[in-house]
Every structure is written in structure tokens, then in C-alpha cells.
Amino acid sequence: MADPKKLFIKTYGCQMNVYDSERMAESLGGSGYIEVSGPEEADMILLNTCHIREKAAEKVYSELGRLKEYKIANPNVKIGVAGCVAQAEGEEIMRRQPMVDLVVGPQSYHRLPELEAKAGNGVKALDTDFPEEDKFEMLKARPKAKRAPAAFLTVQEGCDKFCAFCVVPYTRGAESSRPVDRILREAEDLVKRGVREITLLGQNVNAYHGIASDADGGGTWGLARLIRRLSEVEGLERIRFTTSHPNDMEDDLIAAHGDCEKLMPYLHLPVQSGSDRILKAMNRKHTAEEYLKVLERIRAARPDIALSGDFIVGFPGETDQDFEDTMNLVREVGYASAYSFKYSARPGTPAAEKGDKMVDAAVASERLQRLQALITSQQRAFQESMVGREVSVLFERVGRVAGQMVGKSEYLHAVYITGDVQIGEIHRVRIVESATNSLGGVLVA
Ligand code: 5AD
Ligand code: SF4
């Protein structure tokens, strides 16, 4: 048998890219590739890129520049660009970096084996279509090897919301949902391989509306119904989902947070700004008050829910008062964690095309610092509030110190203990200390 070829994938960006990279590696497995952890001995180097913020394309070009040495050392090495920069830049990538052999968009990576074969014959291969066929159906069955206890599962892709700053509707395309039975089958397979926790992924995951087969009762299911059905899968202990839009937090999904035991008490629900004026300019289609009302209802269903969000500062036209509105909203909510970014104009998006007045860069940086300081203090307070409490921990790996095991609590905190537990087990743990990015605990007998 021929030696396996070696594949190195470098993944940027969101969790969906992590999932896509896994599936790409699996699909190239059929072409004789095994995955390796560095570019040094690789026969193929794939960059799975992200286009969501700042200078994404430039970063990819400079990374490609650095990869040149591998191509010079071994001209047979294939270099590919996948993901959202591939989608946005297309042929331009090969024009600017002629050593690139293959460019593949996020909707066509099921065609990777063909593209790889083409590249192997010295033909440049490009595919940035939004094909009719379902890539998930065309992908090879996932391998049976045992795997880590927490996994991602993409159930929905694309977005029809068209927030004025965002490239997702252009790079990932229109909203589409995978059929219920395919998701169930994939979840059951993951569980057979040792998975105990699944995070359902979608750019707008709570807009999920998948077709159910007659065997499952037919009709179109929303995310809540899918979660309820998944929670019947024996051996699957925890379910999470990300990322959501406030306008799609339907009644049943809110209710599921209260009555579906396997659904973890953690919700990432981005709002982006606390100013109604800016929310309108962002085309978010909700006000700050409406967002807070949604959170109120979720907290009524699940009082201990840990909330997370995304914020953009320095959106064109943002005044000091608009920014203070954002600070006030954050104070009112009290986040368990949150992500904040400085606005960056993304080519092709309405906000970038309108050419509205950009906020001065120094002002935007100062706002970002203030917002991040506030979020960090909330994060710390939430983490410290865990000391003395009992949580349940899914153990995922051995720790750095001998005898130490590390896992995740239901609130997504990293928790370490010293004790006799196995990877994949869930145990009650009493938290005794709070470190910078993790919690220390003891097993509850
Ligand atoms: N500039 C800054 N942040 C952005 N995000 C999306 N687009 C932009 C942009 N043009 C942020 C949003 C989104 C997160 C994934 O990235 O906060 O929720
Ligand atoms: Fe982008 Fe999210 Fe808005 Fe969709 S809802 S356009 S993915 S920020």
C-alpha cells in the first residue's frame, strides 16, 4: 500500500470552520491523506480562512507568502485556500499567489477530492460555486474512530438577515437547513464514537427550519423541536447551539431552556449595540429594549442561564451617547462572557458601500478598551460567583499537572480537579477556587 499523504489544515475564524476543517480532512482521507499537526512534512497545506473582520484577505496573502518556503523546498506540495476568503476572493488568490494550486469555497468543499486530483495533475483548481446539491449528502460517511467527548455539528448555514456590516450573507450564502434525519444520524454516529456533548452550529442557528421525514413525523421543524428530539438520543448528555439572532428566539426555544434538561444553561445571543439609532443603521431589525425583553423571558425560563454576546464599537456614525447606550446595556444584562470588536468596513457590505462617516480610529480604540474592561470585570465576577457552588463537569482531557483532569461546566467554564475520572465522564464538582481562565474544584462524593 502507498504511504499515506500528509495533510495540514490551518483553521481560522469561527466554530463552523473548525467543523468544516474536520469534514474536509475526512473527505481527503478517501484520497489517501492523513492529518498532521504542522506544515513541515505536509503534502498538502490547506488554509481554511475567515473573512468576517479586518484585513482578512491580507492576512491570508501574507500567510501564503510564508508558506512559499515549503513549496520551494518541495514543489510537489499542494497549497489550497478554503473558507470565506476563498469565496470572496476567488481567482484573485491564484493571480496574486500563483503557487496556490486549489481554491475552494465553503459550499463546495465536498468536491475537494476531485479538485485535489486535478491539482495533482498540475491543473489549477477553483470552485466557489453555490451548488444545487447538498454538500453534506455528497461528503463521505464520517469515520468510525473514537473521538473527543465534545463535538460540533453544523445544522444550518448562511444568513438572510443582512446586517449592514456583515459579509456572511455573501460568503456563506442564503439560509439553508439540513434535514432532520441527517442530523439525527450524524449525532447518533458521534455518540457511538464517544461524543457526549454536541454544539449545533449555524450562522443563524435559531432560524433552523429543517424538513423531517415521515418516520420522524414529517413537517418542518424549528430548532427547539430538533433539540427536543436530539435529547432523546441515548448517550448524548449535553446540547448547545450557536450563534443566534434575537428575532429568532421563538417561544418554544425559550421554553426548551426551562424544560429540556440536556440543553445547557448558556446562550450566545449577539446584540452588537445598545443604541437604537445604531441598531437601525446596522439593519438589526430590533431595538435594545426588544433584546432585553427576550433576555428577560429566557431568564424567566432558566434563571441561572449564562449569557454571552457580540458587540461592535465604532460603527459609522456612532456618537459618544450611542456608545454609552452600549455600556449601559452591558451593565444591565451582566454577561458571563462577551466578545467585542472594532468595526471594520468589509468590501461589498452596505455599511462599507454607503461610505458613512467613519469614527475616528483613536476614539474607536478607546471605546473598545472601555467596553472590554467592563466585559472582563463581568466575566470575572461571574466566574468568581461559582466558588462554593456545585457544577457538573464533562471531562475532556488530562491536565498539565500530574493527576489533574480538565473539563467544562454547564456554563462553559474550564474546570480542573485532581481525582480518578475518565475522559467522557460527567461528574458533580464543587468549585473551590477561581483562577484567571479556569476554576478549580473537588469531586462531590
Ligand atoms: N466589523 C467588526 N465586527 C464584525 N462582526 C461581523 N462583521 C463585523 C465587521 N464588519 C462581528 C459581529 C458578529 C461577530 C461574529 O463578528 O459582532 O456577531
Ligand atoms: Fe451576519 Fe449574524 Fe447579521 Fe447574519 S445575523 S448578517 S451572520 S451578523
Automatic annotation (TrEMBL):
InterPro entries: Elp3/MiaA/NifB-like_rSAM, Methylthiotransferase, Methylthiotransferase_CS, Methylthiotransferase_N, Methylthiotransferase_N_sf, MiaB_methiolase, rSAM, rSAM_horseshoe. It holds the Pfam family TRAM. GO terms for cellular component: cytosol. Its EC number is 2.8.4.3. Its cofactor is [4Fe-4S] cluster. Keywords: 4Fe-4S, Cytoplasm, Iron, Iron-sulfur, Metal-binding, S-adenosyl-L-methionine, Transferase, tRNA processing. [4Fe-4S] cluster 2 binds at residues 159, 163, 166. It catalyses: N(6)-dimethylallyladenosine(37) in tRNA + (sulfur carrier)-SH + AH2 + 2 S-adenosyl-L-methionine = 2-methylsulfanyl-N(6)-dimethylallyladenosine(37) in tRNA + (sulfur carrier)-H + 5'-deoxyadenosine + L-methionine + A + S-adenosyl-L-homocysteine + 2 H(+). GO terms for molecular function: 4 iron, 4 sulfur cluster binding; metal ion binding; tRNA-2-methylthio-N(6)-dimethylallyladenosine(37) synthase activity. Gene3D superfamilies: Methylthiotransferase, N-terminal domain (3.40.50.12160), tm_1862 like domain (3.80.30.20). Binds 2 [4Fe-4S] clusters. One cluster is coordinated with 3 cysteines and an exchangeable S-adenosyl-L-methionine. Monomer. HAMAP family: tRNA_metthiotr_MiaB. This is tRNA-2-methylthio-N(6)-dimethylallyladenosine synthase.
